[in-house]
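Z., the sequence and structure:
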Amino acid sequence: MIDDADLDWEDVRAFLATARCGSLTGAAQRLRLSPPTLGRRLKRLEEALGGPLFDRLPNRLELTVLGRSVLDSAAAMGDAAAAFARNADRLAATARPVRVTATTSVSAFLTLHLSDLLAETGADLTIISTRNALNLAQREADIALRMDRVPAEGDLVTRRLGRFGFTLYAKQDLRGDWSGRWDGAPVVGLPETRRRPSQSGWVDDTVQERGARVVARLSELPMRLDAARRGMGMTLLPCVLGDAEPVLVRVIDPPSALREDVHLLVHRGRRDAPAVAAVVDALVQLFRRHAEALAGE
């Protein structure tokens, strides 16, 4: 009789992967082990069970009678281990903040309504403001809010939340005739880029067409917002922030070229975690309530 203390799950896992792959090389790659390590685990399991699990043929491995007899039990152990990992992941999600990654513009909008999100979800939140696409599969974040560019690969669930509008804003007393040319009018631009279409490219092209001049370039939204408040020049802002500033006015209506869809992404394996699901629902409702202001309509 085999004592369950003699069985190591890692050895059973090695057997299961090898049976499914049909080769030591494929199983080692799947488990990210070296072939010698995989071989040692299989040998240890065979010793515990009292016989070989595979017949070594020239180009493949085939299960022995013993191997076939224990395969279903090993598969059940694998399913149980996967279910345990999923449940543990869900429970762990309630013990730490839900991490939301977004661009600076979207992060600023979320911050304006942070108290509502906290009250509606009951979850602690971490908002990660970055242009980098954090990896949801590797749990660098739980939820990603991304503008337009949605990855085509990965086990992700996506949902369109709404549309963000952007346009140029300036301090009310800033000299300028906004109806035609802006001869010499100061502009606080974004970092230069050759990429078209892009926000920075649109600003630079518009400045050139209307005869304005870029007096400074600031990469971050809070810096451009502060510069506009101080009357340093017109600058590009999201409508939901610019319209809320009493000292700022729109220079032009939001151009269609600067309206961007916002998509919510969550990994399929994380979407049912209670805290994550609550934050997803709250974000959907938040964007729905402020749809017109976000689009600049």
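The chain has a mean pLDDT of 86. Residues 271 and 277 are 6 Å apart (CA to CA).

Let me know what you think.
H.
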